[in-house]
Amino acid sequence: MFSIFSAVHNDYLEAISKLRLIDDDFMNIVFKDKDCLELLLSLIFNEHVDIVSYENQYPFKNLHGRDIQIDVLVKTEDHHYINVEVQRQSQGAVPQRARYHQSLIDSYVFKKGKRWNEIPSVIVIFITEEDILKKGLPIYHIDRVIKETGDKFKDGTEIIYVNASIQEESHLGRLMHDFICDKADDMYYEVLRNRVKYYKENQEGKREMCEIMDNIRNKGRLEGLAKGKIIGLAEGEMKGKILGFNDGKMKTLVNTLVQLLKQKLGSLTPEIELQIQRSTEKQLNELTIHIFDVENEEDIIKVLSF
């Protein structure tokens, strides 16, 4: 057990101080608390939501396509399933992704032997740092409709986009203020304020956070934790940079990049792995910076050929 005040973890503590709820790793840590999660959903739906069960960082495997890991999956007392995602990058919250999340959740919750009209309702919520739909609204509710009549097509699905860039004087606006805020004392909602304060100011909470970040570093994971310094780097954004890079070992960097790209794309051809292994440190740094923008192997080649 390390001391959270040891020099090796000073960078962790600085990074923790800058974390916000819009950063998905921190969001998943804070919203493991049921009270925080019920508050979030109740403010979005403008009515109390009773949670029966929930999972954080839940993996969905697809034998015939792309796997996903969703931030939060909730089952409510009225048998709805709600997927909550936070996204800082616009490309991570495109409508097609919401559709794909719904389809995989459907396949998970619809059990063998059930009738078609027994498929549970599935709601996908994206909380985004920017106004993805660019209509200037704080929240968007998307339902299927019958074009000829304008009536809702009641298939039990709904997609909701919450725009965190609007922090108006409303219950939802104050919630979005709390999502963007990095100081616990400046937050409106007490249940969120107390939870954030625990992880940022309480000694045991900071210890837990340091251990979590240590595990992330050791596993070589890449996540958008915060806008600010990265462990082992003077400064920069967490966008596409790898925790633990400060040891400067090319082999570790190569192995981590290959692992992350396989997780993102599903697989890599031997030729691409070999090209990554033969890349210079400068090329690997460039690939690290742009890893969130990579959608296929052609993108990898373009980045390495800069």
Q: How would you describe what is shown here?
A:
The chain folds into two domains: 20-181, no CATH class; 222-304, no CATH class. Strand 2 (68-76) and strand 3 (81-87) form a beta hairpin. Helix content is 40%, strand content 14%. It is built from eleven helices and six strands. The protein is globular. It has a six-stranded mixed β-sheet, with helices on both faces. With 306 residues, it is an alpha/beta fold. Helix 6 (190-201) packs across helix 7 and helix 8 runs parallel beside helix 10 (281-289).
Task: Detail the topology: elements first, then pairings.
Elements: H1 10-18, H2 24-30, H3 34-45, E1 51-60, E2 68-76, E3 81-87, H4 95-109, E4 122-128, E5 139-142, E6 157-163, H5 171-180, H6 190-201, H7 203-219, H8 250-265, H9 270-277, H10 281-289, H11 297-304
Parallel strand pairs: 3-4, 4-6
Antiparallel strand pairs: 1-2, 2-3, 5-6
